[in-house]
Structures are given as structure tokens and as C-alpha cells.
Amino acid sequence: MESSNRRLIRPALAEVKERAASRSNNTQARKQAPPDVTNAENFYYVKQMQAKTPLVVVLHDGEELHGTLEWYDKGCIKLTRDEGPNLLVYKSAIKYIYKA
Q1: What is the reported pLDDT for 62?
Q2: Which fold would CATH assign to domain 40-99?
């Protein structure tokens, strides 16, 4: 059996450092928190306002409010109702909303 000298092939030190740096940059990018604003809520509200969709707003205490969404802002929505006065409802009081 013939013995030959095998040469270990290693990457250059600069190449190893570049790989390590790119890995640390990628892990930092992956660990970032998700964005605070996805605009999904705004998209839903605009869609329901344009279609004048009848909605049911369920409050934390279980009360149900029926009406259509007239406008909204960061903290509240305005619900237009046929049976009774229009209401300004704080978003913090809303448990969930669904289509009637």
C-alpha cells in the first residue's frame, strides 16, 4: 500500500471571519421583534366601512351592539345603528367583532 502525504485543505482565515460575521448578522435579523403595525386592523375596518357591512360588536361584559362602522381611529370606532343612537365605542372595551 502506498502512503501519500495528504494535505489538509482549510479555508483562509478571512473567509472564516466573513462567514461568522454574516451568521451573526443573520441571527440578529431573525431575532428582531415583529412590526408593531401590520395595518391588518385598518384594512379590515376600511373594507367594512366601504361595504357598509352590518356588524356585531361584542363587548367584554357580553353586551352585543349591532350596526355599521362609520369611522375609526386609534382608540375607538363609531357604530351607526338603526335601533338607537350612534355609539362611540372604545377599542379597549371590544372583545371581538363579527359580521351580522
Answers
A1: 95
A2: SH3 type barrels. (2.30.30)
